[in-house]
Amino acid sequence: GGMLATTWVQIIKAVMLLSGTTFMAFMVLRHFGFSTEAMFASAVAVHAKGQAIMAPGALLSNPVDAISLGLGMMFGTAGLPHILMRFFTVSDAKEARKSVFYATGFIGYFYLLLIVIGFGAIVMVGTEPSYRDASGAIIGGGNMVAVHLAQAVGGNLFLGFISAVAFATILAVVAGLALSGASAVSHDLYACVVRKGQASEQQEMRVSRLATLGIGLFAVLLGLLFESQNIAFLSGLVLAVAASVNFPVLLLSMFWKGLTTRGAVGGSLAGLVSAIVLVVLGPAVWVNVLHNERALFPYSNPALFSMSLAFLAAWAFSVTDGSERAREERGRYLAQFIRSMTGIGAAGASKH
User: Which of 98, 144, 95, 153 shows the shortest CA–CA distance to 123?
Assistant: First the structure.
């Protein structure tokens, strides 16, 4: 079903996810008499780290990693391809801004619920022996804590619902990424770059199907390699890559008149290569996956360094580009800026 089907999958997933987490948070608060003070006190009392769980910095031990993760979380979301493609599903700029407003509100609401769910899980799952194996570890690993909490607050019926929501979430994200990735390969790369605009729709569709298959196989391979990694930590690495590859070019193309095609390509490649290399050389892959004794890059989150390098490369390649094409691109910036800010002169959708 293409974009329409993907959109409906994501709408249904979002409704299910928000409904399920709202009910879960409500049941957790109900367990503590709707007292957040009692919930926090109980979590501190039963957790091995005690009062330390109330302090910031438990996930990251040094300020550089914390700042780098924060930058990736903020700017990486703006560079995720399956998020960016949602802007192509609205009718005009006004609807796009309205969509962002509502989406940001729902995301913020969901993150607030996670505070309640997290502390509730410490008490209701962490102290329950039935959710632990013979060695004392959580059954299924840390990524299963929220699923176990669903059973604790709502029994097997709610456990089944949350499991379905988890599957729908995976399906929605995979569908969005596969669609955006296949579209980029078949239309932007194959049709526009390789075939110079001479490819037929049938050829584009064939390349799109092959690209979808290739992306899927590559994703499965990466999933097997990172099977034991914490989901929340992995999402930070993904956002770091998005913040380094897409966000710098998007920002500069909208607000800097000096950006050229060479600068955009150079900045994207610099961000992509540096982010991937630093992730591989960092503790997440070099130590946890490849089982080396010590990481060659000391920080787990590369966004601070790779994103800075992407901005620098985009600027350097642009200012040193003295070609005729670069001069024409700089001259077209004002018209593009007015069109992007007001919608005046915006073209219709392309057929692809």
Answer: 153
Convert 211-275 into a string of H (helix), E (strand) and C (coil). HHHHHHHHHHHHHHHCCCCCHHHHHHHHHHHHHHHCHHHHHHHHHCCCCCHHHHHHHHHHHHHHH
Contacts 24+ apart (CB under 8 A), 167-174: 168/9, 168/12, 168/13, 168/16, 168/17, 169/13, 169/17, 171/9, 171/13, 172/6, 172/9, 172/10, 172/13, 172/14, 173/82, 174/216, 174/219
Mean of pLDDT values over 126-140: 88
Average pLDDT over residues 274-299: 86
**Cβ(69)–Cβ(60) below 8 Å:** yes
Q: What are phi and psi of 132, to 5 degrees?
A: -120, 150
pLDDT tens profile 76-130? 888 887 777 777 677 777 787 888 888 889 988 998 999 999 999 999 998 889 8
Residue in the block written with tokens 């903020």: 74
Round the CA-based radius of gyration of the chain to a whole number and report it: 23
Backbone angles phi, psi at 153, to 5 degrees: -95, -20
User: Could you tell me which of 77, 86, 141, 153 has the C-alpha nearest to residue 113?
Assistant: 153
Is residue 134's pLDDT more than 70?
Answer: yes
Phi, psi dihedrals of residue 80, rounded to the nearest 5° = -70, 130
Q: Is 92 left (phi over 0), alpha (psi -120 to 50) or beta?
A: beta
> In one letter, which amino acid is 176?
G
Angle, alpha carbons 299-301-303 (nearest 5°):
120
- The pairs formed by 126-130 with CB atoms below 8 angstroms and a separation of 24 or more are 126/46, 126/47, 127/46, 128/152
In tens, the pLDDT along 246-277 reads 899 999 998 899 999 999 999 999 999 999 89
Helix (H) or strand (E) run with residue 52 in it: none
User: In whole angstroms, what is the distance from residue 310 CA to residue 327 CA?
Assistant: 22
Question: Between 86 and 170, whose confidence is greater?
Answer: 170
